[in-house]
# Entry
Amino acid sequence: MKREPLVMIPGPTPVAEPVLNAMRTQTYGHTYSGFVKIYKECIAGLKQIFQADAVVAVGGAGTLSMEMGLINVAKPGDDVLMISQGYFGDRYPQVAKAYGINADVLSADPGQRVPLADIEAKLKAKKYAAMALTHVDTSSGTLADLPGVAELARKHGVLFILDGVCASAAIDENMQDYGIDVIVTTCQKAFATPPGMTIVALSNRAIERRESLGGIPAYYCDIKNWLPIMDNPGLYFATPPVNHVVALNESIKMILAEGLLARYARHERIGAAFRAGTKAIGLKPITAPEAVAPTLSVITYPEGIDDAAFRAGLEDNGVFCAGGVGSLRGKVFRIGHMGSIGWPELALTMTALELTLAGLGHEFVPGAGTGAMEAAWK
Ligand code: PMP
# Structure
C-alpha cells in the first residue's frame, strides 16, 4: 500500500488534526464579526507568545516578514549589521540591498557561530540603524547565542531584529526579557500550520522608529497600513488569508494550552533524543556542539552515501527529509523535529534512517539508533 511519506523537513511541518479541521470551515467574510473575533484572538495569542507590544500577521511567507521587519525600521542609505550563520542569514543582506540599505555582514562557517567579540567590535566601530540575527539558521541547524547577542544589542542601544522563522513557538523569544525589537517569522515550522502567514512582532521602539522614517518604499509591507487593522480586523486594508488565520489561531490555542515553557522543554527533549539516536548509528551533525538547535538536525553524509539515493531510499521507507541548501547542497541532509512532532514521528524516522543507511552499506549495529533514542527519551 502506497502512503504519503511523513513530512520531516524543517518546514512545512505536519499539521495537527484540530488545526486541519478548523481550516476546513467555510471561508468567512473577512469583516464578519465571527472572523474578526478569531483574528483578534490570533493577534492577542501572538502578542502573548512573543511578549510583543504589537504584531502584524498577514498573508505571505517568511521572506516577506524579513522584508517587512527590515524596511519599517531602516531606510535606504542606512547601515545595518547582519550576522549570518548560514543560507538564511545570507538572504537578509540581499533583502537590504534590494532597498538600498547598506548591510555590513559578519559570517561564520557552516555550523559555527560568529564570535560575540566580532559583533561587539562592529557595534563599537559604527552606529547602526539596526542589527539582524537568525535565531536558528535552517541550512546548518545553527542556534544563535540569542542571550549573548541580545545583551550586546541592549548594551549598544542598537535596534535588534531577530529572524525567528525556524525557532518561533519552539524556543523562547520573549521580546521583553531579551530586548528584541522586531521578530520576523512565519507559521509553517514550529507553529505547525500550512504555509501562508507572515508574522512580524514589534516593540514600541520599533513602531516609533517607523514613525520617524516618514515615507518608506513600500505599501503592502508598510506596518502603518496594517497596525490599525491588527487592532480592529473589522476594518479593511487588504484581504487576509481567512482560513489560514483560523488555522493559526487554532494552533496558537494548542500552543498556549501546552504551555510555552513545557513546549520549549518538549523541543529540547526531542532534539536531544534524536541526536542521541543518530550519534549511535555513526551520524554527525554539521553543527558545532554548543550550537545544535532543538528544532532540526543537519547531518553530514557518511563516506560513500549519495544524497539523491539516500533521500529516495528514506522516502521509500516512509519519511520525507530535506537535502542541503547553498554551499551544503549534496553534503548534508536535514530532519525537522518541531511543531507537532513527538515520539511516534521520531521512532518512525529513526527506523527509516536505519533501514535506508543499512541498505546503502553504512555500517552500524542494527537497532542502535532506536535504542539510544529510547534511552535518551526516558
Ligand atoms: N528564515 C529562515 C531561518 C528560514 O528557515 C526560512 C525558510 N526556510 C526563511 C527565513 C524564509 O521563509 P519562507 O520560505 O517562508 O519565505
Q: What stands out?
A: The pocket of 4'-deoxy-4'-aminopyridoxal-5'-phosphate is lined by residues 11, 61-63, 88, 134, 137-138, 163, 165-166, 186 (CB under 6 Å). The CA atoms of residues 145 and 162 lie 12 Å apart. The chain has 14 helices and 15 strands.
